[in-house]
Amino acid sequence: MTQPKGSFWDIYRGIPKEIWILSIVSLINRIGAMVIPFLSIYLSDSKGFTLHEIGWIMTAFGVGSVVGSWLGGKLTDRIGFYPVIVFSLLTSGIGLIILKDLDSFMQIALGFFLVILLSDILRPPVFVAVNNYCNEENRTRSITLVRLAINLGFAFGPATGGMLIASFGYASLFWVDGLSCILAMLFFILTLKKPINALSKEEKKEEDSSVLKSPYKDKSYLLFVLSLTLFGLVFIQYFSTVPLFYKDVHDLSEATIGLIISSNGFIIFLLEMPLMHWIEKQKKASKMNVMMIAVGCVIISYMLLMLSFDVTLLVVGMIFLTIGEMLMFPLSNTEAMQRSLGKNQGDYMALYAISFSIAHLIGHNLGMQSVDFMGFNLTWVAMSIGLVVCLFLLQLYKQSVKKEKELELN
């Protein structure tokens, strides 16, 4: 039955079936992502490591993410996105199952470094695959659909993981996480044929006229990536230092804190696709201007943290953060994809992924040290200043791109 125009289904109309397959692969993979949410508890309770040792294991985890994203970009440009996706899902799945049998500090630190490296090799080729199958009209919604699947998977994963621990112990997490990676790989192979030519339509037009360019020599793009790193560093505080603020300053229970944080994923699940669909229809809307609005929303969320005197303002602050997230991440991903056309696309998308890996690598520890040194409110002031710098960098990027277009016309 044909759905009427103007209906809810318009949001999803025109998204290629390959994007749906990639979204289902991401959903299967992320539903099984149960080890990471319980990692610090597992290392403390089950393995008996000190907080100092856990900190170093988390650092190894972060370094693996950076190296994996970089390597994923290199491999994607060398051999194409399809075999890299298969390799990452298979090897990370096997690696997760092996991890459950490691015991010593060095074994586990090295093991998590290698497994997250293999896992995050997946990030650049998935971006490139999305770009290969979508077009200009549905690119942002295609990215958003994959993000929706990932967020939905994360919503189910931790809850299921908690039940598995209670019923079967921590080893079951590694089995389920590893097998979900392998299941996602099998689904990918069975439903999506390897493309004969992995270049997107836009790349085919530019292939003959464009010299492949490295993102590390693209000064404008480096400005963009730096702004995203700064945004990510501030954004992730809401999932590390801000929960401590909820508990220590506002004396909220773990259940209340969980509900506030869960509202982020719930709002994204309900509203991100309709929001991106609406933005795509606004022909005069500038991606860069919308991204700057996103940064402004996060600044407001931190101002509300500083002014908060009851739970209501904390919830409103989380809503503003979520609006900023919904506006920033799909559109910044689209901008990175468009920037990469006709160039070393894997390297471009790897650098985009690395910006958030670096934010995770240093952001959590930086936030904790800042709170310890100067307290919560001054930390929120510092984070707000960081976002103002982010706005400045985005403006510089916007002006730089404008100059490039003017030079091309001349």
Give a verbal description of the structure.
With about 400 residues, this protein is mainly α. The protein has 15 helices and no strands. The chain has two domains: about 15-195, MFS general substrate transporter like domains (Growth Hormone, Chain: A), CATH 1.20.1250; about 215-410, MFS general substrate transporter like domains (Growth Hormone, Chain: A), CATH 1.20.1250. Helix content is about 80%, strand content about 0%.
Key words describing this protein structure:
globular; 0% strand; 410 residues; 15 helices; Growth Hormone, Chain: A; mainly alpha; 2 domains
Distance between the termini: 51 Å
CATH class of the largest domain: Mainly Alpha
CATH superfamily of the largest domain: MFS general substrate transporter like domains
Give the number of helices: 15
Class based on secondary structure composition and strand pairing:
mainly alpha
Topology:
Elements (H helix, E strand, L loop, with lengths): L16 H15 L7 H8 L4 H29 L1 H19 L5 H16 L2 H11 L5 H30 L2 H21 L9 H6 L12 H17 L5 H8 L5 H28 L5 H21 L3 H30 L4 H65 L1
Helix pairs in contact: 1-7, 1-8, 3-4, 3-5, 3-6, 3-15, 4-5, 4-6, 4-8, 6-15, 7-12, 7-14, 10-15, 12-14, 13-14, 13-15, 14-15
